[in-house]
Batch of 3 targets.
Target 1
Amino acid sequence: MAKRRKRGEGGVSLRKDGRWEGRAVIGYDDKGLPVTKNVLAKTKSECKAKLTALKDSIQAPTSDQPKPGILLGDWLDFWYQSYKKPNLRPNTQMSYERRIYQHIIPALGGTQLDKLTTNDIQQFYTRLKQGGRLLRAELYGEGLSDQTVRGIHTTLHAALDKAVSEKLLFRNPADGCRLPPAKAREMQVLTPEEIQRLLIQAKEDGCFELLLLELSTGLRRGEICALQWDDLNLRTGELRVERQVHRINGELVVSPPKTKAGNRSVILPAPVLSVLKAYKETVGSKWMFPSPINKNSPRDPATARKRLQTVLQRAGCKKVRFHDLRHTFSTLSLEHGMDIKTLSTIIGHVSSSTTLNVYAHVTDEMRRTAAVKIDQGIGKADPPIERGVAPRKPAPSTFQAHKGQRRKAGTGCVTQINEKLWEGRYSPVWPDGKKHARNVYAHSEEECEKLLAEMIAEMKAEIAAEKEQLKAEPKVD
């Protein structure tokens, strides 16, 4: 575990350009906000030495009294921009900025730090639960989820903790707040029969290799979409996981895994490797699963999610998330005897304890099985009929792939997001030569089809009007 720096020592971090940066508070401005100064060095030890010299050359503030008059909004902005943002990944920055600038500052930003009370924060959380949603409230409800409220609390609590360490506050008023319960999302696992039906249907729908690899490795959605053929050793079956793909401000971005444990290698089973060897001859891209639109770009993780939902529905399987395929792989691996440490390494968990917490239900069953085997070996007990037996290979499925009906060109597409939400999407080519998509949402498939048809008619009218306008404009020589 990393050693925490003591209060007042400043912070040291590695920059993207390879240099080390040290930053410390050297005083306070007229508003009472901390003023920082930084030092740069090629090595961490040199950076620490420079930071110590900087602090020694400056008279540290001697007052132990909190600085009055500082607004929470000013402090949150300073704390985020100076302390947090430089060390956050782009997608994490977006989460922080939504919490700070869209929720906390509009509600509490005008309150002075030293006047902020636990009751103020508690009432703020209550309002978020009752009517804090800013977008698509008609679809998801007026209030924010428990998980979102807890995330907002985490950010606010951290900012106030820093204010305490900088002696702007005597205590953190967020300490005494009562939070919504932390509810883990329900984990769903496909049965062996469902896995067979899923893969049979995936062959018909053109995503067999992607789903087979996912069920054989448990990669995260962004990781499997970012795989390149250079990551796979076709001779040994070693697959390196070195990057992930995700969307930031509407653009696909490829970046390294979030943690060191995310950089890992997985050995593929021989049958899976054989399938991928044959599949490579049909791809024609450096990306293992390229975008259907642009072979030079990786597949959008959202596209993989939507494709899975279509395949699940056609295969008659229960509705699960893409992440549940990761759970399916992990559960089957444990049930077939893989140890926790090995599984933790394969799926990229930072600690084996994380794997134990997530899959406690499986390990409980493994312990019961082990107890039964010990009883059989020592006590000569009769073998049980159901429990304590090794998983058997399921009988071959008789499922026949659903051929489906292709939607006609120009009618868009409809996708089920969850049990109560459908999405309609239309992406025509506009007069500027680019595709511009629009979405509609509804609580039933029938309503979504109706709204989609209305939107398509409106978009076609807009496109026709733009074309007419372009024809009417005088040509410039």
Note: The radius of gyration is 28 Å.
Target 2
Amino acid sequence: MNNTQLPDPRLDLVNDTLRTKYWSWVYFSPEGSPSRLAEVLNQGLPHISQESWPERFDFGGVYINGRPALSDQELHFPCKIEYYEPKFPISQAPSIYPVITEESIVYRDDDIVIAYKPARLSSMPAKEQRHFSLKSSLEKLLTTTIHMPSRLDVSAQGLVVVSISSRAHAPLQQAFESRRVTKRYICGTTKSCPWERKVELGQIGRDPRHPVLRVSPAEQGQKAETIFTNLGTNTSSDHEISVLCAQPITGRTHQIRVHASSNGLPLFGDKFYGGDDAPYLHLISSYVSCVHPITGKRLECILPASFLHSWMASAIERVPSLDEATPSLPKSQ
């Protein structure tokens, strides 16, 4: 695997950025092994109060053979026990995770919703906790089950399309899978961008140095395509920001971040891929266009001004039209 273009990911910084500490134990037979889950957790994590485990089970993050464990139970062998320990008191979680309100709904009809996802909130229930996510928050707010065919990174923010009626779930999913949904992101880097437009085709694969990270180019990776357009420069927090429009044609994990970094343009605030330190990741989903799954009419949505940051506000006007960027990959692989 060739990862010479990937900047030093500063693995200690990556681990410090994660909200949890990972623990695991593997047992192959009953001989000499604990018989119950609580024994494993109490013996392996003596710094955690035994009285806190009912609350921790409910919060999430405990797994047996990859399946969530919501209470103490007898072990069956062989088994692998995993725990994602929060680095913060669980009681503080409501104040740590962003809140979704009616103001977060950018567009809504009987079948779909386009919502604004803030940074630091996962799109779906995460491995380390099951109560705080865009999906669970929207379901509580809308009092209905939603389907989310596309997601944003935890650190990213911006527009997310979901279906809220059963008749819209399948056609919206198919629209994303067949690449009939156009998404645009505004992103910023403190590095100088030397080109006006670039189509990045570097394959993306897992980085062997850390399970969370991805790398490009990757010989055994998945095909990936991102169209970048240079939108000029702005100033933010005393930094000169090169503002880019990124249109992902494929949807690989961390795709825009990895492709930007592999071109020497790590995003401002991206602690995973060598970006300069900032209060947040400068990666915002700012535009989405799709055919409505029920009406068949073209629907376009632009991030409202109330969600724009100062460094990107003027750049929105310079985002190229749909006709200026044509996908080069076929619709199916």
Note: The radius of gyration is 21 Å.
Target 3
Amino acid sequence: MKLKITNKIALSITLAAIMALAMPLPAMAQDKAPKMNKKERVALRNGNKLYEKKRYAEAEVEYRKALQANPASEKAQFNLATALMRQGSATAKEDDEKNPMKQAEGLLTNLAKSAQDKQLRGKACYDLGNIAYGRQDYGKAVEFYKHALRCNPNDDQARDNLRLAQLKKQQQDQNKDNKDQNKDQNKDQNQDNKDQNKDQNKDQDKNKDQNKQDQNKDQNKDQQNQDQQKQDQQKQQQQQGGMSQQNAEQVLKAMQDRERATQQRINAQQAQQQRYERQRTNKKW
């Protein structure tokens, strides 16, 4: 049976995972932790008082004083990380160096790996799970909550957040599968449309070429018909013994040219005869 997450449940997830941070550790010495010096103890107490009043920036200053007094203080590191988380944004990007959450994450990561106090390691893992949850990295959040429960099996808040993170991861994976499926369907549909358009364009080009061939064929046929009609007209005129106007004009011009040449030749002969007569008259005997 698949679990569904409603908007109401999603809101409770955000409140539980983001707001329910592990509280600062009290300024008390523990058997497994190194003993505190006076400056460290005073700074931790002052920081915790400011933290309870939600004056997180001032609490951060006191926790840093405790670290100056004892750089190896695991409590000071954890409390400083808690104050920084209150000042930072749980939904900020992981590579945002200006976000106090980034510095808090570094402190908590070191504590989760190397803290001598097992309970403190569990609290560090719990807060790291909250940070991962705020970034919607539900897979990583699940792992951190599991580590927190291994260190603190009685941590009910870590157990509740683990269950909620698992639900969110299940929903996220399902949405991813649906998205991938829709992506594949869209890809197949786009390919089908592309192939269909390609076939349509191919048919259109084929029809275009066929229409062009048919048009050229019709034009050639019309030209052939016109040439045939012209030849038939010329043949009919020849059979009737008729002459076209152009041919008649050409014949008339040729006759005029011949007549003109004949007249010129006659005039030249007459002129030569006249000169001969004049010479003979003027000759002395």
Note: Residues 122 and 148 are 4 Å apart (CA to CA).
